[in-house]
Amino acid sequence: MTTPDNWRKSSYSGEGDGNACVEIANSPTRTAIRDSKAPTRATLTFPTEAFATFIRALKNTPTP
Questions:
Q1: pTM of the model
Q2: Residues 6, 10, 5, CA angle at the centre, nearest 5°?
Q3: Which of 14, 34, 35, 53 is an S-S bond match for 43, by CB 3.0 to 4.6 Å?
């Protein structure tokens, strides 16, 4: 996967430079994740459907 140009910041990251931020980018077959404070470092990539399954499971997990 080449570096996508459609990175978007997580809505849970908050405003400002000091927050813990995650950015996500999608391609037709892969989802990439990176630390917005270090965008030139390595990214994690997952098959799109596997990442969607992961997110669905997170949304269905009760918080302690």
A1: 0.70
A2: 10
A3: 34
Rounded to whole angstroms, the Cα distance separating 36 from 10 reads 10
In terms of Cα–Cα distance, which of 58, 24, 18, 28 is closest to 43?
24
SS (H, E, C) 6-57: CCEECCCCCCCCCCCCEEEEECCCEEEEEECCCCCCCCEEEEHHHHHHHHHH
Q: What is the torsion angle, in degrees rounded to the nearest 10, for the CA atoms of residue 36, residue 40, residue 29 and residue 1?
A: 180
